[in-house]
């Protein structure tokens, strides 16, 4: 590898080449940037973690840290995720050594990073610990472009009570959706003639409701549609980008997660009462209609979303400026990285959780009890 970098910014999921560079280059400094909720693993490896019973995991459907049942099931889920992560971390170095001739150490990548940046607003996310060198940099709200005439005429229709947007990103292929799911959605939309529905749909249009008040399109100008004052509901998979856009423009959601961190985001929506969490495996015409009607007829969801939107935007400093400051700070004071590094990073789990001290104190306690028993017996 030729060339020289003062600092490397690496997406820890979508930029494996950057992780590879940190393993094969000498004297290289980098920032570990989490554009997904893998930031929770980063925090744990940098000694900034919650007890596993209360750490929000990727597959939860609700969050209640005071419930014993939740803490028990959450611990089981967290242990399963940790076991899988450990296996991958153990196997990946051998795979990269065989393919790339360099052993890629994921733990070292997270631990040795100058900074670790997350990407979800701490106002929106569950309350989680941060540190001087490990914190979140929230996305800026997107700036909407002007709507095209076809969209503008639809959403500005004076006879409409509001616009409902349906978008599951480009990972969800509607052509593979079951007839039952498409029929359930269509049956609900067909009867909602008082509303205008904009559906990001790339499947066969003959399989779904294709009425005048329902617009089907393979691509949607989401920021512009969400910002429109008549938009009343956003039905989506609550990926981190979709969730962020919904909060930016204060539009309540019906969250139907598909996989990965989307379940955690949906649980967050449920806890904050920013919308309705609808599980895809339990979705039918009745549950889909009920979720939509709950949002449209209960102003609490809109009110909560407006409050959340205002809180995430109310900052002492813009997040991009905050990130820029800390990067410049490191370039001015490179030795500060050592000072900001938490000492727990150097410990193994046995030491970090004070298991060695518990064992030593327990042994001392039992030894003291034994001595006292013998003294009492001799008397």
Structure, explained:
- The structure is a single chain.
- The mean pLDDT is 87.
- The chain has helices at 16-24, 39-45, 68-100, 106-112, 149-155, 179-190, 222-227, 240-248, 262-272, 285-297, 299-313, 319-332, 336-340, 349-352, 355-378; strands at 8-11, 30-33, 115-118, 134-136, 163-167, 196-200, 214-217, 231-236, 253-255, 275-277.
- The radius of gyration is 25 Å and the shape is globular.
- It is an alpha/beta fold.
- It has 15 helices and 10 strands.
- It folds into 2 domains: 8-140 and 318-355, no CATH class; 149-313, Glycogen Phosphorylase B (Rossmann fold, 3-Layer(aba) Sandwich), CATH 3.40.50.
- Strand 8, helix 8 and strand 9 form a beta-alpha-beta unit.
- The termini are far apart.
- Helix 6 packs parallel to helix 10 (285-297).
- A 6-stranded parallel β-sheet has the order 7-6-5-8-9-10, sandwiched between helices. A 4-stranded parallel β-sheet has the order 1-2-3-4, with helices on one face.
- This is glucuronosyltransferase.
- It is an enzyme of class 2 (transferase).
- It catalyses: glucuronate acceptor + UDP-alpha-D-glucuronate = acceptor beta-D-glucuronoside + UDP + H(+).
- Keywords: Glycoprotein, Glycosyltransferase, Membrane, Signal, Transferase, Transmembrane, Transmembrane helix.
- GO terms for molecular function: glucuronosyltransferase activity.
């Amino acid at each position: 590898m030729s060339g020289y970098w003062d600092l490397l910014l690496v997406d820890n999921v979508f930029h494996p080449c950057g992780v590879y560079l940190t393993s094969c280059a000498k004297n290289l400094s980098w920032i570990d940037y989490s554009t997904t909720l893998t930031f929770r693993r980063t925090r744990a490896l940098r000694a900034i973690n919650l007890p596993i019973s209360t750490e929000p995991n990727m597959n939860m459907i609700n969050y209640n840290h005071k419930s014993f049942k939740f803490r028990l099931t959450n611990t089981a889920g967290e242990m399963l995720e940790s076991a899988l992560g450990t296996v991958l971390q153990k196997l990946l170095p051998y795979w990269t050594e065989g393919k790339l001739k360099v052993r890629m150490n994921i733990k070292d990548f997270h631990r040795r990073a100058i900074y670790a940046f997350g990407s979800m607003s701490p106002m929106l996310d569950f309350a989680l610990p941060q540190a001087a060198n490990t914190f979140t940099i929230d996305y800026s709200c997107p700036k909407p472009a002007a709507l095209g005439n076809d969209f503008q005429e639809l959403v500005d229709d004076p006879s409409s009570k509001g616009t409902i947007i349906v978008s599951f990103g480009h990972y969800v292929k509607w052509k593979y959706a079951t007839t039952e799911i498409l029929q359930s959605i269509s049956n609900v939309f067909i009867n909602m003639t008082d509303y205008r529905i904009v559906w990001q749909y790339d499947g066969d249009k003959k399989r779904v409701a294709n009425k005048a008040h329902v617009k089907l399109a393979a691509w949607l100008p989401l920021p512009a549609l969400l910002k429109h004052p008549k938009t009343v509901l956003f039905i989506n998979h609550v990926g981190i980008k979709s969730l962020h856009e919904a909060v930016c423009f204060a539009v309540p959601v019906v969250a139907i997660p598909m996989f990965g961190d989307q379940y955690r985001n949906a649980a967050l929506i449920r806890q904050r009462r920013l919308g309705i969490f609808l599980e895809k495996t339990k979705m039918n015409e009745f549950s889909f209609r009920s979720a939509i009607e709950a949002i449209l007829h209960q102003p609490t969801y809109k009110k909560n979303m407006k409050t959340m939107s205002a809180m995430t935007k109310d900052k002492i400093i813009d997040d991009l400026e905050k990130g820029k400051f800390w990067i410049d700070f490191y370039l001015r004071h490179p030795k500060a990285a050592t000072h900001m590094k938490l000492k727990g990073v150097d410990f193994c789990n046995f030491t970090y959780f004070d298991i060695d001290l518990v064992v030593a104190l327990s042994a001392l306690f039992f030894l003291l009890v034994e001595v006292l028993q013998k003294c009492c017996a001799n008397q």
